[in-house]
Automatic annotation (TrEMBL):
It comes from Streptomyces clavuligerus. This is XRE family transcriptional regulator. CDD domains: HTH_XRE. It comes from the Bacteria. One of its GO terms (molecular function) is DNA binding. Residues 1-29 are annotated as: Disordered.
Amino acid sequence: MGSSPVKGPSPSYRSSWAPGRKTSMPQWNEYSDGERIKILRGKEIRQSDLAEMTGLSLPTIQQAEQGRRLTLRTLMKIAVALGVDTSVVLGQQAPRRSMDRADRTTLRDLSQTVHDTAAGILPDAIDDVPSVAELHETAAACWDVYWQGAYMEAAALARPLLVQAAARLREQSAAGRGEMHGILADAFRLAAYVANLTSSRDLAYAAIGHAQHAASLAADDLRQALVLSGRAWVYLRDARLSDALTFAERAATDIEPKFSTATVGELVAYGSHINFAAVVASRLNNRDRAEDYLSQSHAAGARMGREHRAHGTVFGPVSATTQAVGINVALGETGKALALISEIKPTHEGALSTAARNRYAMDKALAQADARMWDASLETLETALLADPKWARHQALPSVIVQRVTRGSTARLRRVSKLVGTAPPPVSGFLPATARTAL
């Protein structure tokens, strides 16, 4: 088996390729195996570097890229070195959108940790297993990184958090196991969120499933609601809108508090959950339900007075208003969205997490594009992309916005298109609101 050549389809024509770009270029499976290896290697890794990384000889790497010989052993070593599944090298699935080799390796490692931890497979020796209090602090720090929009850093931090939480759970007395299951649920949920944002669909489903199991063992109603909402988000990104709405509604109603006695933490959880239910309802174009949930979201935010962070999420009056912009855009209420935008000041935006502020910028640019405020839309989008290029790498919405802008400064449109990594749209280009369904 080790010496049997592994063959894939030959290309019908040649051209450069970049994940996620919508052009007339060949599909990923139309390249040869050798061409795919060369593309995945990129300019930053030389053939000699790949040889060193794999432990293979330089002639072996050269022959693999020339399509002359690719044994199963060579295929597996190259795939591991480049941080992809063998199916990607063989053209059976395309690489993740906008990811370099380091990103792919980080997600591959996270996937292994999620599956191993869920199966109870831990390193033989873990030095200095943190205390429960230390793990609470670590989990909070991991969520801070996530809400800064540093998703790959959050993925890297989720791995030791999972291992350490599982190790502490193994040593914990019966009285404290519920609390540890709660921390483990948070760690799995963090992994699911990162996977969902990077379109690692299988990992997102697996991680949120493990989070649900851990939350049930924790016997914590709030954590179970958080996981339900997380599952709804996975469904939303997978275009399972009806299922997403079912879980989003259930997550919110399960923890609906009495406003007169609710704690800040309870309001954060409820407000963010009911707001997300409004998001899902808007994607289904269920106007009445979306507006009802928005009303409840605004009421929760007003009760809080300002933004607060709790349970791995952030919510307050500014979050309620900024997220209402995107909801109104999805419902086709461009005028309402622009009216809300006019009420939001830079000082208000400063109260948001980095990720929430970036997302609001996308919704704002989308509203401006729908109102044919071409240059304003491009300016909003360009400012956001330049301010946080690492966050922007994992977003699909910028390319949607670029395709909606059919007029405006040609120079700026070209600059923004280059930042997004897509070709400028034709003058007649336009994408309907339904293009946001699975974003």
